[in-house]
Write a structure and sequence with these properties.
Number of strands: 0
Helix content: over 70%
Largest sheet: none
Amino acid sequence: MKKEEILKASRQENKNRDLAEMEVMCQAGTCAGRVGALVCCVVSLLSSTLAHTMLYSPWAIYFSIMTTQWSVCFIRMRRGSDLVLAVLFLILAVLAFVGLIERLMKVRA
């Protein structure tokens, strides 16, 4: 295989994206997940302190995002640890969603 053929195959495989760019996007996603968790903690702490109530909606959203992230990792790389994390975050997302629905039903009644 010639150098040009290898480069062409690599570009097709990576959909013409730079490997360094893909790594930066991966790191940005990880950082965004951490910031999201921090914001959820701050919002929950504020609502607990100021309104004496627990907000479930930020956690339902955050855990859904994390479920998606780890599910995609598992589908692409087939690591058991990714599956465990995906299932854990799915359970947490469902629990937060149930808490949200329960809270909304109480407000409605």
